[in-house]
Amino acid sequence: MEISSYILFFSLLVIILSVTMSVYNWKLSRNINYLSVFLIILSLSFSSYSLFLYGGSVKLYAILLNNVAPLFFLIGPFLYFYVRSINNNDYTLKLKDSLHFIPFLINLVAIIPYLFTSFEYKLQIAKHLMQNYYGYRDYDFMLFYPHYLNNIGRAFSLLAYSLYSLYIIFKHIKSNNTISHLKYSYKFIVVILCLVIIISLGHLFM
Predict the structure, then answer these.
(1) What is the pLDDT of residue 6?
(2) Shortest CA distance to 51 belongs to which of 11, 18, 108?
(3) 77 to each of 105, 165, 198, how far by Cα in Å?
(4) CA–CA gap between residue 155 and residue 204 (Å, rounded)
């Protein structure tokens, strides 16, 4: 079994568990939706990246490649929304929170021409890029800015949100205002944040 197959299986499992977690817990703790969205998009990112690195289904890679790329700019914001919600015990979004969605919207607008290309064209690109790290240099994906800025931007955004979220948690713990029933949530999210920081640093320095 290929490495990508294990990662795809694990990613699918995480997506199913995230949806289940959200459906059964949103009335008790609505901030769980932020965590669920974060895990789902992160799983899609891992799936796409594993196919790129290790190979696998070209059709699946063609579906994931660039079509869901704008969502990757939401990984950091939703992680931050979750941390903020358990920290402040407030899951609502304010008008100013719409600013966090700007990179997502810019990337979404940028790939509109690519979205309307044929699936055969997407398959052609997927075949060329799979297990070919420098293959991205041969395609601009019809963006109005260099594609490599996407990769750098997503990694930097994720790193910045993760570091700031970690700062929020430790600042709250230091103030001795941590609610007892949230202690497990903090331990869990600190582990997640540390892993995400390592991943984002890996992307930046690859």
Answers:
(1) 87
(2) 11
(3) 13, 10, 17
(4) 6
